[in-house]
Give the backbone structure.
Amino acid sequence: MKKRYWRCFVCNDIHYGVAPPELCPTCKILHAYVEISADEARRILGGGPGAAFAPEEFRAAIERFAAGNEFQVNPDREHVDLLIRGVFENEKSHGLKFCPCRLRTKDWEEDLKIVCPCNFTVHETYKGVDGGRCWCGLFVRRR
Amino acid sequence: MADLLMFHGQECPFCRKMMPLVERLERETSIRFDRREVWHDEANAELMRSYAEAIASKCGKQLRVPTFVNPETRDVLCGSVEYEKLRDWAVKPS
């Protein structure tokens, strides 16, 4: 199923998925989404706040993300610092926050799978592994 | 025997951890590694992609680093490993 872009006609929330949410999670209006083009979505998303996301903001974002999950950001600060530097280098040179411990294939759909944070919970380094981690070790299972 | 390929990323912590092991193996044996950084050098990235099928089958269907490739046999060792495992893989006959 192909993912498409959707815009909430009330608050301009943007959704990327095979179908729009029934309820807009931002303004709570029912049946508010209309399909838009990828270019339109990019223009809307590119013009707002947060265009320049600093490394420390990214670190805070992944800490908040991990807080509600069974994993945490790796307490090894040096390890995480290097990874975040790589993520930002890759964003600058290659357009997205690609994992520094994998290489993009140049297939767009495949490469979206290595944008950090990736869905590492299905990977063999994490799933069912005591002390599991994502491939690069940015996230580790809580003990 | 041709040099073994080591694909690595400049900002990949596990790649950095493997570097001293690779250097030790070179000191202790006649094995040599051709180190290829893949995020800051597109030619190296393309070389890694040319081994995509062999690498993906051993690396969770992805192009992960660090990855070691024997260019003659296309045998692959994926990920950060202990010295003994790297050595045993590297000395395997072609």
Summary: The mean pLDDT of chain B is 95. Chain B touches chain A at residues 7, 9-16, 38-40, 45, 48-49, 52, 60, 62-65 (CB under 8 Å).
